[in-house]
Automatic annotation (TrEMBL), chain A:
PANTHER family assigned to the protein according to its UniProt record, in alphabetical order: ATP SYNTHASE DELTA/EPSILON CHAIN, ATP SYNTHASE EPSILON CHAIN, CHLOROPLASTIC
Domain ATP synthase F1 complex delta/epsilon subunit N-terminal: start-end pairs: 4-83
Gene this protein is translated from: atpC
InterPro entries given in the database record: ATP_synth_F1_dsu/esu, ATP_synth_F1_dsu/esu_N, ATPsynth_dsu/esu_N
Species lineage: Bacteria, Bacillati, Actinomycetota, Actinomycetes, Micrococcales
Keyword vocabulary terms for this entry: ATP synthesis, Cell membrane, CF(1), Hydrogen ion transport, Ion transport, Membrane, Transport
Topology relative to the membrane: Peripheral membrane protein
Location within or outside the cell: Cell membrane
Organism: Isoptericola halotolerans
Record's protein name: ATP synthase epsilon chain
Automatic annotation (TrEMBL), chain B:
Protein name according to UniProt: ATP synthase gamma chain
Coiled-coil boundaries: none
Protein origin, superkingdom: Bacteria
Keywords per UniProt: ATP synthesis, Cell membrane, CF(1), Hydrogen ion transport, Ion transport, Membrane, Transport
NCBIfam families (UniProt xref): ATPsyn_F1gamma, PRK05621.1-2
Amino acid sequence: MAELNVDLVAADRKVWSGAAREVSAPSADGQIGILAGHTPLLAVLRPGIVKVSTAPGQVAVEAQVSGGFVSVDANVVTIVVDEITEVSGRESALA
Amino acid sequence: MAGGSQRVYKQRIKSTQSLKKMFRAQELIAASRISKARGRTAAAAPYERAITRAVSAVATHTSTDHPLTSERPDTNRVAVLVIASDRGMAGSYSASLIRESERLVAQLTAEGKDVALYAAGRRAISFYRYRGRELAGQWSYGSDHPQSDTAAEIADTLLGAFLAPVAEGGVGELHVVYTQFVNMVTQRPRVVRMLPLEVVEGVAVPGEHETLPLYDFEPSPEQVLDSLLPRYVRSRIFSFMLDAAASELASRQRAMHTATDNAEDLIRTYTRLANQARQADITQEISEIVSGADALAAS
């Protein structure tokens, strides 16, 4: 199955980057889930929890964010947030 | 009296030595911080890139007009943001930055515009305050270590001014003057027109195997743009501040290195003069003794 290429960036650093199966983010009117093959999307995020999973039930990173936006284009997911207040899971070595 | 000049030289040597220590310390501090500052610039790049791409995607896929991208013909007030440093000891850094902003202000005034000044960094604030110029906004922040929330605060103030009605001092344009970090030896002042926004990044290149993607916007194109554009401005201003910080540190390192060298030269010169004075004293004393002895022998 095709995979998503996910980048999670905050204003001053790159938080996580890698391949994932599912991304869940707090969009303006509810939590959205993004799987491979999603239509191109630009969505505003409200404060909430962003979750990136590499396999069902395997959360690679979970972060409390203060708002931002997410863009999906040809399986490339970019989550751009203003501020990350809490991160669990492994941070990317790039951070 | 001759002994007096020796003492004066010794004092000068001592004070120059302590100055040299200070210069040297400043140089080392700047040198150690500069790589960190450049690292922060690099760390902020992905965010800026992502946001720029998203903005250009929205701009190419919609024809939505947004207040931030449209000209404001109703006012001739323009805002100028000067991003300067908090401290001196950086050679010509502040001077050339302020010269550039003065040039911009003069040019805008010549175009019949009314300039509202916003100053970030104590050097710029004190420059304008000393000259009795009115500042529409001022921030003194740790200029060699800017934080993204300071950038957000500055950006929000300026966005507020841009969106405000004329009666409340709304401005029609925003120019930013900051120092661009070219490399370790070159930093040059640069003027950027920030608002109204022009998204310079060209059309997003579509993948070779597909047509231009049609984005879904959630909740709506207008709202996406509403949330994107202020973020874009914030991230640009933050990146200007980071660039200015790296430039400041590089200038300081260079200036302090030169100052250390100069102090060493001075110490060398004074040491020579002190030796000379000592030698002259000794010679004089000897000749006094000899002539005294001669006088005694003659009597």
